[in-house]
Amino acid sequence: MEKKFRIDFNESNVLESVTYTLVSEFDLKPNVLRADIGGDGHGFMLVSIVGEKENMVKGMTHLRDLGYGVRELSGHIFHDYDRCWNCGACVSLCPTRSIYYTEDDEIKLNTDTCIACGSCINACSVKAIQLEL
Ligand code: SF4
Ligand code: SF4
């Protein structure tokens, strides 16, 4: 099976190797879609993971026990085109380029490639992007 997760870390666990642990201890195949870390040591990674369901559960439980924030990415993103004023603040935040400018300079959402990571939501001052579970 394949699942996508957002994994948050802080200054106390940032040095742990998440992907190495998932591969070596739980026989999982992680693919990091995006990772970001701030100067204060806090950061996150968006990761797609392939493996057996049981190993997936054990691996995520292990990360939570180590102090990581782990959230499965599920649901889907709704883009309210009536609210959106094409400011573009959300575009650069998308790890999969699912929200983009068209040739007519309009913002569009590709729901086929969106992984519902939520990175774009807080960027929108008019709440034109919502996560529906
Ligand atoms: S939730 Fe937003 S940022 Fe994340 S993949 Fe979908 S469109 Fe891109
Ligand atoms: S941040 Fe909101 S208003 Fe701006 S382009 Fe994205 S969806 Fe539209």
Tell me about this structure.
This protein has 133 residues and is of the alpha+beta class. The chain is 17% helix and 32% strand. The chain folds into two domains: 2-72, ACT domain (Alpha-Beta Plaits, 2-Layer Sandwich); 76-132, Alpha-Beta Plaits (2-Layer Sandwich), CATH 3.30.70. The chain has helices at residues 18-26, 53-65; strands at 2-9, 29-37, 43-50, 69-72, 76-79, 99-101, 107-109, 129-132. α1 (18-26) packs across α2 (53-65). The protein is elongated, with a radius of gyration of 16 Å. The model has no long low-confidence stretch (mean pLDDT 91). The chain binds iron/sulfur cluster (2 copies).
Short description:
This protein is of the alpha+beta class. The chain is built from two helices and eight strands.
Number of domains: 2
Strand content: 25-35%
* Euclidean distance between termini CA atoms: 20 Å
Order of helices and strands: EHEEHEEEEE
| SS class | alpha+beta
CATH domain topology of the largest domain: Alpha-Beta Plaits
How helical, in percent, are the residues?
Answer: 10-25%
Strand order of the largest sheet: 2-3-1-4
CATH architecture label of the largest domain: 2-Layer Sandwich
Major sheet, described briefly? 4 strands, antiparallel
Question: Count of DSSP E strands?
Answer: 8
* Mean pLDDT level: 91
Per CATH, the superfamily of the largest domain is ACT domain
Indicate the low-confidence ranges by residue numbers: none
CA gyration radius, whole angstroms: 16 Å
In oligomeric terms, what are we looking at?
Answer: single chain
The number of helices is 2
Q: Give the bound compounds.
A: iron/sulfur cluster
- Note the overall shape: elongated
